[in-house]
Specification:
The complex is a heterotrimer of chains A (170), B (435) and C (524). By secondary structure, chain A is of the alpha+beta class. Chain A is built from 7 helices and 4 strands, in the order H-H-H-H-E-H-H-E-E-E-H. Chain A folds into 2 domains: 60 residues, Orthogonal Bundle (Arc Repressor Mutant, subunit A); 78 residues, Glutaredoxin, CATH 3.40.30. In chain A, a hairpin with a 2-residue loop joins strand 3 and strand 4. Classes of the chains: A alpha+beta (170), B alpha/beta (435), C alpha+beta (524).
């Protein structure tokens, strides 16, 4: 699922787990002996629907799964892929751990910041289109430098390819 | 190999035979390529017989620990009446390692078949495949393949009419290297923070949901159908050096080589042959400086140490490092060793779960010291400090992330001290600006 | 018969039940293994790594809190590797922990200070690397969280999750960015949440009530019992310059383990009231005249000896067994209707400790009073007082209406700590001590008799009520035994009330003794 919605932090929380989304979550319950084990999948569903996981959303997940909101918060903040604030429409992850670092990842990172207009890592571009995050090893070291844009995994990125790649993400 | 370069003649393609072959992804395609015969065969054997076959093969855990697989399976209790679980560790986050991704995205049914046989052997009716959150393609491919397998009767309430049940659930991770540690993975599946657990209890006694559990790596499980098809003796015979290291291993070669990629070699193959023959050697005008052979959590090897190194568990230990996950990071003479060691320390600092004092504080502190050195503000005493902190970080924590951070630091200072000195003395210009 | 194993710790051999952890076995050997995250009332995660000890034949140092002893095991807690490991942990903890001691409430009772002084490095090597910084958070109502000082031992999270069963805390983030988190709009308002402040080994979770009030080394600490309700949690009263500044729980595995509720914890200010009755006084006409104790006791003896028929005693639920017992004996010649005042409130159990709760009956000696015959309903006793020959008020305050109801009584005697509202009608007003100013005993809801001790000096001429009663008895019968101490006063009760027979202060010690086994059984 590509693209993220640019949620507003102070709008009232509309429940995520209704209708179809609720059905998808409930279809998971038989696959685990506890509802708690559905937490990571449930959080992915929230992020797919809303683009990020707000505190009211955490409270909703907690209620649906019979957990406390603080517990859900503890889990959400542990895993780096869950966004706890809105991000750009297209979320870019670039690996700069040593194997990619050896192959010029930092130059790719600089090119990404330049081409997206993001002033720094983690910040969203002024037009709301992109956020660039520096991440750890993406598990494609032989295809340096890999980047992810939303759910698209793009291998062997070089600074020269960056502008062209970004064209495809409006 | 097979992708993106064709298989090299010196490889032993077993697991990687169909990398790059899109036709291998489907159930029918896999059957055409000999798939699911092993599962059918296994269903006609007793679990004990399967475990014996795997024991006899000498297969050892391919995720990094190298623990004998058949032995691990035999730890599962028999006739205890509790639900057993198999967990397939597809979290692959060790820097330098990228083999499991290939197995999943090219040959998903190879893995499914391996999981099915393993689950049957350990008395498990459910297998969770924990795939790291960033592996969107493997997630897609594996999800489709699992659905196909159900449709074709290879999974479900009555696998191939045997009366045996097997369910596979794909569980998506969310960005945490530490979840590759087997007990942290179980916590993550249970919907908790990915904190490693203290052992005992061991997973085979009380693991996932407090039930007997076996956790195996993707490559380990993918090897199982081949062992069943061709016999444990065949697998054991794939051995060029130490008889305790048998079979094939996917080596993920990355960094400064001509042809990075996954190479499947027979255990005991020479590292030199791998790097200079199969991978095409160094880039033009470059010489080899260092290799981290096992994923980043093992000691760094100098070029000299790689000269006679044979690629199996004992062989790499004999040369001062470990085979680990065989994520081989190759560094040529253009490499700033201090910079790369800092970047690795930073990796561990990001990934520490925060439970143990030494890891939580030590990974961050050593990163800061290395940063200062790179910024030209280090002191001579910093090296002794790094060694002292590394010693305090080793052998004292719930899991070995802390030790893994210390390994490149200690081996780096021991073997590349002049590079550190160059920063300390100012002979080398700072590589970082201090904030 | 539990199987026992034998283990040698630092040269001392001990025999412990199978399944005991090394850290607990060590206590029996007289060895305290330094630790942070371990706590005997919490599940053990072994994360602080402070308790790593050397175990012969084990390849690595083992965490003593989760390693069970095996027969014949030999453990060294102070060998060089173990000491080095602890020194390492301390240095790592101090890497980000700020040197806040001069402004931190925990100073003087801080386990990080203590162990660092004992076996940390003389100087840290963290130099001037910037330390992690996070602003102070108000976890409310009484708890502040100072993230910079937090050592991530997670005792607070485990307490709230597993003992209070109110999971409002979590660990947030990862690595050295980790802190304790609370969900927005939630507070630490569980009735037992204040315990996290005690559990915190450092000054990271602190009490707003105690903030900057006193330095630990200025405090005098007295073992006592909580006066809040009939549970009888064991506490420590901390005083500074004769003022009670804090109550903290004291360990008693049979009663309250290591905990006390916030209601009990926060209600101590009454112990510091300045508006106290300070001297005995007699009513002459409508004037009160201060007198000395000799005159007062003489007068009281006359009143008692001169009367007959019915007497009513209205006593505080905080009155001690000694006071209630001796008062009862003083009134032996009367038909006595005796009642204790029991304010009621909401019950609040601590889910993870069966049998432990803030009890609805907010009277610490309710059971003791009943055993001693103070079992009349309050309302009937009040009604009877209006027609009684002698009414004795023991540390109770009456409303205007209630006091007016005493108009028809014969003699009214007030043994009080503060104005009772009945002073206008009381022939005698005698100042007595509060539980903080005397030694005494109470019986809790489980039938356990527990001692409390004197934590501060009484005001003016105030005396324990048992002393007043015994003194008055002596004026009636010069040969009567007058107890010279609370211990003697207690010991004398057994002759009159079988439940207390044969008990002495020595028997009770500091953790009490079940005097009514049937009551304890019923409570279970």
């Amino acid at each position: 699922m590509s693209g993220t919605t640019h949620g507003h932090a102070d709008a009232p929380h509309a429940p995520v787990f209704t209708g179809n989304v609720r059905a998808r979550l409930e279809a998971l319950f038989p696959q685990y002996p506890t509802k708690q084990a559905c937490l990571l999948p449930a959080l992915w569903m929230v992020q797919e629907e809303r683009g990020w996981i707000s505190e009211p959303a955490m409270a909703e997940v907690a209620e649906v799964l019979g957990l406390t909101p603080a517990y859900v918060k503890g889990v959400v903040t542990f895993y780096t892929m869950y966004h706890t604030h809105p991000v750009g429409r297209h979320f870019i992850q670039i690996c700069t751990t040593s194997p990619c670092n050896l192959c010029g990842a930092e130059a790719v990172m600089a090119a990404l910041l330049r081409e997206t207009g993001c002033v720094e890592l983690g910040a969203t571009s002024p037009d709301g289109r992109f956020t660039v995050a520096e991440v750890e090893c993406l598990g494609a070291c032989g295809f340096a430098t890999p980047i992810m844009i939303n759910d698209d995994f793009i291998e062997s990125v070089t600074p020269e390819r960056v502008a062209g790649i970004l064209q495809g993400y409006k | 190999m097979g992708y993106p370069h064709p298989t090299h003649p010196k490889e032993t393609p077993v697991l990687s035979k169909h990398f790059g072959d899109a036709g291998a992804r489907t159930f029918d395609g896999w059957v055409q390529r000999g798939g699911y015969a092993a599962l059918r065969k296994a269903l006609g054997m007793t679990p004990e017989a399967i475990i014996e076959e795997v024991k006899g093969s000498g297969l050892r855990g391919r995720g990094g620990a190298g623990f004998p697989t058949g032995l691990k399976w035999s730890f599962m209790p028999k006739g205890d009446g509790k639900p057993h679980y198999l967990v397939c560790n597809a979290d692959e986050s060790e820097p330098g390692t990228f083999k499991d991704r290939e197995i999943m995205r090219w040959t998903p049914h190879q893995l499914i078949e391996g999981c099915a046989i393993a689950a049957y052997a350990i008395g498990a009716e459910r297998c969770y495949i924990y795939i790291r959150g960033e592996f969107t393609e493997p997630l897609r491919v594996m999800t489709a393949a699992v659905a196909e397998a159900y449709a074709q009767g290879a999974l479900g309430a009555d696998v191939f009419g045997s009366g045996k049940r097997l369910d596979i659930v794909i569980h998506r991770g969310a960005g945490a290297y530490i979840c590759g540690e087997e007990t942290a993975m179980m916590n993550s599946i249970e919907g908790r923070r990915g904190n490693p657990r203290i052992k005992p209890p061991f997973p085979a006694q009380a693991g996932l949901f407090a039930m007997p559990t076996t956790i195996n790596n993707v490559e380990t499980l993918a090897s199982v159908p081949h062992i069943l098809n061709r016999g444990g003796a065949w697998y054991k015979g794939l051995c060029l050096s130490n008889p305790k290291s048998t079979g094939t291993k996917l080596i993920s070669v990355c960094g400064h080589v001509q042809r990075p990629g996954n190479y499947e070699i027979t255990m005991g193959t020479s590292m030199k042959e791998l790097l200079f023959d199969m991978c095409g050697g160094m880039k033009p005008g470059r010489t080899l400086k260092a290799v981290i052979p096992g994923g980043s959590s093992v000691p760094i090897m100098t070029a000299a140490e790689t000269e006679t190194c044979l690629l199996d568990y004992e062989g790499v230990v004999a040369c001062g490092s470990m085979l680990g996950s065989a994520g081989m990071i190759v560094m040529d003479d253009s490499t700033d060793m201090v910079y790369q060691i800092w970047r690795l320390a930073r990796f561990y600092a990001h990934e520490s779960c925060a439970q143990c004092t030494q890891c939580r504080e030590g990974t961050a502190w050593t990163t800061k010291i290395l940063e200062r050195i790179l910024a030209g503000k280090g002191k001579q005493s910093d090296l002794d400090l790094l060694l002292s902190l590394s010693e305090n970080m080793t052998g004292k924590t719930i899991c070995v992330l802390s030790d893994s951070c210390a390994a490149p630091i200690v081996s780096g200072i021991q073997k590349f001290r002049p590079e550190f000195d160059a920063y300390l003395s100012g002979a080398r210009q700072p590589a970082l600006a201090m904030a | 018969m539990t199987e026992r194993v034998s283990v040698t710790i630092d040269g001392a051999q001990v025999s412990v039940p199978k399944g005991t952890s090394i850290i607990e076995a060590a206590k029996q050997a007289g060895v305290l293994i330094p630790h942070y995250c371990y706590h005997p009332s919490l599940p053990s995660p072994a994360v602080c790594r402070m308790c790593l000890v050397e175990v012969e034949k084990a390849p690595k140092l083992m965490p003593a809190c989760v390693t069970t002893v095996t027969d014949g095991q030999v453990v060294h807690t102070n060998s060089l590797p173990a000491k080095q490991a602890r020194e390492g942990v301390l240095e790592f903890l101090l890497a980000n922990h700020p040197l806040d001691c001069p402004i931190c409430d925990q100073a003087g009772e801080c386990e990080l200070q203590d162990y660092t002084f004992q076996e940390g490095r003389a100087a840290g090597r963290h130099d001037d690397y910037p330390k992690r910084y996070n602003p102070v958070e108000d976890f409310g109502p009484d708890v502040l969280y100072v993230p910079n000082r937090c050592i991530l031992c997670t005792r607070c999270v485990r307490f709230m999750d597993d003992v209070a069963e109110d999971g409002v805390l979590c660990v947030s983030e990862r690595g050295d960015r980790a802190t304790i988190g609370i969900f927005p709009d939630r507070e630490l308002d569980h009735p037992w949440a204040g315990n996290v402040v005690d559990l915190c080994p450092v000054g990271s979770l602190i009490s707003k009530d105690f903030l900057h009030k006193a330095r630990a080394w200025d405090l005098d600490r007295t073992a006592s019992v909580c006066p809040g309700c009939t549970q009888g949690c064991n506490i420590t009263i901390d005083t500074r310059d004769n003022t009670v500044v804090r109550l903290r729980p004291r360990a008693n595995l049979e009663v309250n383990r290591h905990f006390m509720c916030d209601e009990g914890r926060m209600h101590y200010r009454w112990m510091n009231r300045g508006d106290r009755l300070e001297s005995p006084s007699v009513l002459e006409g409508d004037q009160r005249r201060a007198v000395g104790w000799d005159t007062a006791l003489e007068r009281l003896g006359q009143m008692v000896r001169g009367g007959a028929g019915t007497a009513v005693v209205l006593a505080s639920g905080r009155a001690s067994l000694e006071s209630l017992g001796w008062l009862s004996r003083l009134l032996g010649r009367y038909q006595v209707t005796a009642a204790v005042q029991v304010p009621m409130g909401d019950e609040a159990p601590l889910a993870g400790v069966p049998g432990l709760a803030l009890r609805a009956e907010r009277a610490p000696n309710l059971q003791g009073a009943r055993v001693l015959g103070y079992d009349a309903p309050w309302a009937s006793a009040l009604a009877a007082a209006g027609k009684a020959s002698l009414v004795v008020l023991l540390d109770v305050s009456l409303t205007e209406a209630e006091a007016a109801g005493l108009a028809g009584a014969g003699n009214v005697v007030v043994l009080g700590t503060v104005e009772s509202g009945a002073g206008a009608r009381a022939g005698l007003v005698l100042p007595v001590t509060t539980m903080a100013e005397e030694h005494g005993t109470w019986m809790n809801c489980d039938g356990r008799v527990q001692r409390y001790q004197q934590a501060k000096a009484p005001p003016g001429m105030a005396q324990p009520a048992w002393w007043v009663a015994a003194g008055a008895m002596a004026t009636i019968d010069a040969s009567a035994d007058t107890p010279g101490s609370a211990a003697e006063a207690f010991a004398a009760l057994g002759a009159h009330w079988p439940a207390l027979a044969g008990l002495s202060y020595q028997d009770l010690g500091l953790s009490g003794r079940i005097a009514m086994p049937a009551m304890a059984e019923a409570a279970r």
